[in-house]
Amino acid sequence: MSFTINDLAFVLTAGLTVGAALGVVFSRNIVHSALFLILAFLGVAGIFMELGAGFLGLVQILVYAGAISVLIIFAIMLVMNVEAGHTNLPNSSRGIHLGGALVALLLTISLGAAIWRSELSAFPGPQPVSDTVGALAELMLGRYVVAFEVAAILLLLAVVGAIILARGVEEE
Amino acid sequence: MIGLIHYLLLATILFGIGVYGVFAKRNAVAILMSVELMLNAVNINFVAINKFVQTGNAIGQLFAIFVIVVAAAEVAVGLALIISIYRLRKSVNLNDFNLMKW
Amino acid sequence: MINMQNILNISWLIPALPFLAFTLIGLFLHRWPKIAAAASILAIGGSFALSVPLAVKVFTGSPEQVFEISARWLSMPGLRVDMGIMIDPLTAVMLIVVTTVALLVQIYSLGYMDKDPGLSSYFAYQSIFAGSMLGLVVASNFGQLFVFWELVGICSYLLIGFWFGKESARDAAIKAFVTNRVGDFGFLLGILLLTIVFGTLNYSELAVRLAGYNNMAVLLPISILLFFGPMGKSAQFPLHVWLPDAMEGPTPVSALIHAATMVAAGVYLIARAFFIFSQSPQAMFLIAVVGGFTALFAASIALVQNDIKRILAYSTLSQLGYMVMAMGIGALTAGMFHLMTHAFFKSLLFLAAGSVIHALHEEQDIWKMGQLSHKMPITTWTFVIGALALAGIPPLSGFWSKDEILLGAYAGGYMGLYILGSLVAFMTAFYMFRLIFTAFFGSNTHGHHSHESSPVMTIPLMILALFSIVAGFVGSPFMDNIFGHFITSPGAAHHEASLPIMAVSSLIALSGILLAWMIYQKGIISPENLRQRFSGIYQLLYRKYYVDELYAWLIAVFVDGGARLLEWIDLKIVNGAVNSLASFTGWSGQTLRYTEDGQVQTYALYLLAGVVIILITAMWAVFAALV
User: Fold this and answer.
1) Residue C447 pLDDT
2) Structure confidence at residue A172 (pLDDT)
3) Distance (Å) from the alpha carbon of B48 to chain A's nearest alpha carbon
4) What is the pLDDT of residue C369?
5) Shortest CA distance to C463 belongs to which of C378, C370, C368, C572?
6) Where are the domains of chain B?
């Protein structure tokens, strides 16, 4: 087995994603964290592309990197009340910080070990890219149309709820 | 050479970083961002397995889309909540919110 | 007339009649004291009337003849107790002694207790005591004996504390009962061992199973434990402390129970169980030593006592020691013989003393009596007869029985015990006549206020005096020692009468009387001088060797100390455990509340930690292999 270009692409993208994620979590400036988050989203979009889910990758970029990230940055702007460098400090409770670190580590290691020692590597590699949009459309508007509609209503609710929460209920 | 395992491992690592972020930060927005990381890791899982294990259809991708939808809604509402609390308490530091204390 | 065989068949009436009287008095006759007294006396009289022909039948037959009837009473695996009657010569002797003395004492009580408000109760107790004592004597097995043994103890308690208004009487009753209990505890253990090892408590069956059994490791503990009973009941050292205090009871009670019958029950037991004791020489030696020591110990205390009843009580202790010692050296015949004669002359002495006390309005100090011989001749001379018998002057009964004991000691090779016994005989004669010369012939004029007692009291005195004179002949060489012919046992010692021994013991007794006469009647040696010169010994003897004080100290240290220890355990340990449980709950609550800090991240951490633990546990195989 040889190390192909595909593999290199994966390694680079994966490394980018992981690095960005670490940046999100370890940065002391919340704006930096937000930017790292955008980078992470882009990395994930790249992973999707590699997996042949082109449509999904684009959706990822549009929604996540485009809308959600902007939303987050807006919110940051609204709630920033200290100087930027101190906005994203680590947890003041050392116990929770270290406990969380330990738990995260254990989780990662155990799941990773389970995956590594499983027989999932026996599965064949990715198939050639097919018409993903059409397939998705068929599913979404065919068998899973109810879920599709429900998702739409959910978004509506979220919008309404966000507006009410953010604006506050006015006393008449 | 890169197989399912590597994608799954990537997802696991991302998930772990997200978990760490939930506990390691005191800013509520930062915690929300960590949750987003976790959701992204889950999405990678869905798509990878869809591509490698269950290849006939695009169910995994569909579900990933739905996850994105839900994540968006959640972020919106969550940030609205944070702004709302900020207006009241002038702080987004989670350690200041201990109303559930004994 | 009544068929002789029938007598044996209705022999169960002998103990039953007094019990019947007790029931009648208790249930119906309580309000009429005179009728109650009559019922009680009739009952014991009936028992006496039945005992005499029965004794005649027994003593005209063969010594080995035994009559027995029994009915099963209690039966469970490992323990079987029957209720039955066994009549053999030993039983017959005891029946005669008990019924005679009990009858005379009850008649005497009519006069002594005449104006007492509790007369009905008194006779009720007398009846149940008589019934219990008779039941004890006719018992066919150790279980039944123990039941009546305990009953007799209860009666003793009731009668000692009869005047329960007096605190000293109450205390004395409790002391008697508790001390007896200590002895009975050992006794019961012995009985239990017997039933465990041999499976039966019946005398004849045990004798059969014991023949040829020589496992000393079993027999010795059994013997010693069984001996605890007589130690308590017959007041041997160190369980003797209750008998002097028992004088708090009415004098007829002292005469009957604490001189003639109940305290003799212990000696009777040793005779009954002789076939067990005689198998272990160490136990026999222990019995002899305890008896001899008690005899000397009590006699020495009696030398300096001033209360007439106390002197007689210590004399009883001393004579009981004699009997026990006799049993211990194998002279079963001598011991039982002395029991019989002692019952007669000691009860006589007590009743006469009661007559004096009654006449002098409850005065009991001999130094406050005197010149009684002038106003109370019958009492005086019957008392003197009794004292002569006790001192062992021939030809009175006490001489024959005491001499046989001394003979047994000398001929059996127990020289130490012979000398001890002779010394005690000397002391006995001395202190008895110290009493007589002081109280009856002394120079004090208190006796002038007295008058002779009524016939209902003096006639029993005379009858007992008669017995004190003649009862000894059944064991004397004149009648070929017919007593010993019947009262004997395998393993008991027999010795030919020896004239030198008789002469020596008579001389010892006479010299004791002479010394007493010199000091107390003629004043050749002054008692005050003696008291001052030997003041240390005097104090020791007067305070009864401080045994009571020692016991009080032991109880304070061990019983109270033990109670205090248990109280500490209860408060600190038991209570502490409960309290600490409660305080632990409180502490855990106070500590655990810090987990609720109101921080979302904390709660999320708990959740996730639980998930990770479950995950790792579920994937333990994988995880362990990785590590």
Assistant:
1) 59
2) 54
3) 7
4) 78
5) C378
6) 4-91
CA atoms within 13 A on the CB side of A16: 16
Q: List the beta bridge partners of residue C85.
A: C69, C139
**Which of C599, C608, C615 comes nearest A93 by C-beta?**
C599
Q: Do A7 and B2 touch (CB under 8 A)?
A: yes
Residue B36 has pLDDT above 70, yes or no: yes
Burial of C232 (0-12, 13-18, 19+ CB in 10 A): buried
Q: pLDDT-based confidence at C1, cuts 50/70/90? A: very low
Distance in Å, alpha carbon of C622 to nearest chain B alpha carbon: 16
CATH 1.20.120.1200 fits A1-86, yes or no: yes
- The span from the CA of A95 to the CA of C478, in Å, is 112
Are A162 and A67 spatial neighbours (Cβ–Cβ below 8 Å)? no
CB contact under 8 A, B101 and C598: yes
Residues with Cβ within 8 Å of C315's Cβ and at least 6 positions away in sequence, in order, are: C298, C299, C302, C346, C349, C390, C428, C431, C432
Asked whether the beta carbons of residue A136 and residue B61 sit closer than 8 angstroms, the reply is yes
Contacts of B57 in chain A (CB under 8 A): 135, 139
Given a contact cutoff of 8 angstroms between Cβ atoms, the answer to whether A37 and A20 are in contact is: yes
pLDDT digits (tens, 9 = 90+) for A80-124: 877 777 778 888 888 889 999 999 999 999 899 888 888 776 666
C38-69 as b/e, with b when 16 or more CB fall inside 10 Å? Answer: ebbbebbbbbbebbeebbebbbeeeeeebbbe
**Residue A28 CB contacts under 8 Å (≥ 6 apart), including other chains:** A85, A86, A87, A88, A89
pLDDT band at B24 (very low <50, low <70, confident <90, very high): very high
Comparing CB atoms, the residue among A91, A103, A110 nearest residue C619 is A110
Collapsed DSSP state (helix, strand, coil) of residue C81: strand
Residue pLDDT, tens place only, C303-342: 888 888 999 999 999 999 999 999 888 888 888 889 999 9
Task: Name the H helices within chain A.
Answer: 5-26, 30-50, 54-59, 69-79, 94-116, 132-138, 145-167
Q: Where does B4-91 sit in CATH, by number?
A: 1.10.287.3510
The strand pairing partners of C202, in sequence order, are C141
Instruction: State the complex-level ipTM.
Output: 0.92
**Record: contact B20-A51, CB cut-off 8 A:** no
**Measuring CA to CA, which residue among C111, C194, C100 is closest to residue C146?**
C194
Provide the pLDDT for residue B40: 96
pLDDT tens-digit profile of C144-167? 899 999 999 999 999 999 998 889
What b/e readout covers C471-480, taking b as 16+ CB neighbours within 10 angstroms? bbebbbeeee
Which residue is closest to C608 within chain B, CA to CA? B19
Domain ranges of chain A: 1-86, 130-172
When pLDDT is averaged across residues C506-517 and rounded to a whole number, the result is 86
Q: At what angle do helices C262-272 and C332-359 cross, to 10 degrees?
A: 180
Chain B residue with the nearest C-alpha to that of C606: B23
What stretch of H or E contains C171? helix C167-198
- State the pLDDT confidence band at B78, using cuts at 50, 70 and 90: very high
Please tell me whether residue B69 adopts helix, strand or coil conformation.
Answer: helix
Q: Which residues in C lie closer than 8 A to residue B95 (C-beta atoms)? A: 599
Instruction: Determine the distance in angstroms separating the CA of B57 from the nearest CA of chain C, rounded to an integer.
Output: 31
CA dihedral (C597, C603, C609, C614) in degrees, to 10, reads 130
- Residue C69: in which H helix or E strand, if any? strand C67-76
C600 touching B (Cβ < 8 Å):
yes
- Contact call for A121 and B5, based on CB within 8 A: yes
pLDDT of residue C481: 66
| Residue indicated by tokens 């009571």 | C548
- Give me chain C's average pLDDT, please: 85
